[in-house]
From TrEMBL:
It comes from Streptomyces sanyensis. Keywords: DNA-binding, Transcription, Transcription regulation. InterPro entries: BlaI_family, WH-like_DNA-bd_sf, WH_DNA-bd_sf. Pfam families: Penicillinase_R (PF03965). This is BlaI/MecI/CopY family transcriptional regulator.
Amino acid sequence: MTGRNQDGPAARHHRRRAQGELEGQVLAALREAPGAVNAAWVQGHLGGDLAYTTVVTILTRLHTKGAVARERAGRSFQWTPTADEAGLAALRMRRMLDAESDREAVLASFVTALRPDDEQLLRELLAEAAGDGED
């Protein structure tokens, strides 16, 4: 009987999240907030199945990455988003690039692995960024 329960709804409910998935969920909750909110609000908004300490840990990690801001409110903090999910992904990519010694090789490998439409989009974005500096 125990074996059957492992594949039931409770087991699926507590599946291991993909890397960054929880951070994305916390950022989404903060973007839906009416303003700066505390960790308990985030926990409740996410359905309450996460431990309060887990929510605080994720918020702290997001703060370290520059994706959220915090302001002291009594003994705790009020949190606000400074990045969306795309911004968080960009921060992750930048951190990974910064950790490599051969940046050119990493960027070259990244570009050659892109689909043609993504490569074209990247070219357009780079041209746009280069044009912004020529005022």
